[in-house]
Specification:
Radius of gyration: 24 Å
Strand content: under 5%
Low-confidence stretches: none
Number of helices: 23
Number of strands: 0
Shape: globular
Oligomer: single chain
């Protein structure tokens, strides 16, 4: 086979680059209109594949071969394999922690100590502290975040707002944690020091978080569901939990172990997998009565226990309490619950890989830079590129690395300190990823928190406010570090 060289490729025109993007936007919008909240369960994946096909046709027209495009798709999918393993492990973790009573215990005690008026703010703060301690928004959402969704159900409060509070807090903590992968990646790409990067981020991140907390406090204090109906719902949920599970502080040991492993910088996949296994062991020791009710009829105790615990890993748990709402809260998890999310991630990354390989993303950036004259417009362009990369490549790491490489020389040429670039990459690339349902982060949050609607996106206030504040700082020239100044 003859080797294809770069001279055979034609640079895509703006129209070439726009056609697959416009086609994707039209198809995704149509999918939402026709299928509603179910659009991520197949329609969006087909839209991404068709848009990818359109881009491939344009690439072939511009001189690319199918062999080189196919190789780019394979490389694009390979980027997601680490995330796929984590998704599968998280599915198992949710299943075994529901069976072991870890999540139900968190919900039970949470209902005892948290008041509805400051529930959303509390969820945001707690998730922020946990994420800052362990450096992972994903682990935070899949553990304490799941519990807060359950507590919201008990208070008869909005699960969408609760999810927004969980995600806002998780990304605030993740963003400022020196243990976070993205917090280390951004300064590495921009060429600056980790702690200089974190210090510089405080100027945009802390004010954004404070504003977010004020909003959640306002929503909580104006919550109308705190009367007799809500009290009755809380009593019903706590009574059902205590009757179904052996509620004990011992049930929280799997959470303590997982958070300790994450704090010790163990990689996410083995840490979450160990957490899932410990949850299974805990279920055997502490939830024998529950397991007995879930075991198949006629099965002896050993066989029944093995089958119930085994099923929790791959297909989650199904709890029958007699209360449909409680059953819906407690019945989920397992690797199978993450398969649709994995399907969405793989198709989205394939589409993004094709656009990057064909030079379409680079074409957008070249056009943007020609119009970005001031510091404010440069930072706005960076934010827009990071968000666009999140939309197209469906991966927050790509949304940091690609714009970082593209804009690094321009920031240096204008005398801006590398921390100005690294902060902007985090203020937009990291922060906006969970707002996009087909992004790895958005798909993960929907799967881990069992969200059936995109409504949660509108309540991730921190994730909206932070990039807006970053742009405002750019135009005001406020706290924009320059090369001759200390970071």
């Amino acid at each position: 086979m003859t080797q294809q060289n770069d001279s055979q490729f034609r640079i895509p025109s703006i129209l070439d680059a726009l056609i697959p993007i416009i086609a994707l936007i039209i198809m995704l919008s149509t999918a939402v209109v026709y299928f509603g909240d179910n659009s991520s369960y197949g329609p969006n994946q087909i839209a991404l594949l068709i848009a990818m096909g359109i881009a491939i046709i344009i690439g072939l027209k511009n001189g690319y071969t199918w062999h080189s495009i196919e190789k780019a798709i394979v490389n694009g999918i390979s980027i997601s394999l680490g995330a796929v393993l984590i998704l599968l492990a998280v599915g198992s973790l949710i299943g075994t922690w529901l069976l072991s009573g870890t999540v139900p215990t968190l919900v039970y005690y949470g209902l005892q100590i948290i008041d509805p008026s400051w529930f959303y703010a509390a969820a945001c703060i707690v998730c922020g502290l946990v994420a800052m301690s362990i450096g992972s928004s994903w682990t935070t959402a899949a553990t304490v975040g799941v519990a807060f969704i359950g507590i919201a159900s008990g208070f008869e409060m909005s699960s969408a707002v609760a999810a927004g509070a969980v995600i806002s807090g998780a990304y605030f903590g993740d963003k400022l944690s020196p243990l976070s992968e993205t917090t280390n990646l951004a300064p590495a790409v921009a060429g600056t020091d980790l702690f200089a990067h974190i210090r510089n981020m405080l100027w945009t991140t802390v004010p954004s978080f404070v504003i977010t907390l004020v909003i959640f406090l306002f929503i909580g204090f104006n919550h109308s569901g705190t009367g007799a109906g809500s009290t009755e719902s809380i009593e019903t949920l706590t009574y059902t939990l205590s009757n179904t599970y052996n509620i004990s502080l011992w049930n929280l040991i799997p959470l303590v172990v997982l958070l300790t492993l994450a704090y010790k910088k163990m990689p996410a996949f083995p840490a979450v997998a160990i957490g899932a296994i410990i949850g299974a062991v805990w279920a055997v020791f502490f939830q024998q009565e529950l397991i007995a009710t879930m075991a198949a009829k006629g099965a002896d105790s050993v066989k029944g226990t093995i089958m119930v615990v085994w099923t929790a890993f791959f297909d989650g748990v199904t709890v029958n309490t007699g209360n449909a709402e409680v059953d819906e809260l407690l019945s989920r998890g397992g690797m199978s619950s993450m398969l649709n999310t994995i399907w969405l991630v793989m198709t989205a990354l394939s589409f993004g890989a094709v656009l990057e390989h064909l030079g379409m993303l680079r074409r957008f950036v070249d056009a943007i830079l020609s119009a970005a004259k001031s510091t404010g417009s440069l930072i706005t362009s960076t934010v827009a590129t990071c968000i666009g990369t999140n939309l197209i490549t469906a991966d927050q790491y790509m949304a940091i690395v690609m714009p970082g490489r593209m804009y690094k020389e321009e920031y240096e040429r204008r005398g801006l300190h590398p921390t100005a670039l690294s902060r902007t990459l985090e203020d937009s690339g990291t922060i906006t990823s969970p707002l996009i349902p087909w992004n790895t982060c958005g798909a993960f949050m929907m799967g881990a928190l069992a969200l059936g609607s995109y409504e949660y996106i509108f309540y991730c206030f921190f994730n909206f406010i932070n990039p807006i504040l970053a742009i405002a700082y750019g135009y005001l020239n406020f706290k924009i570090a320059r090369i001759e100044e200390p970071a």
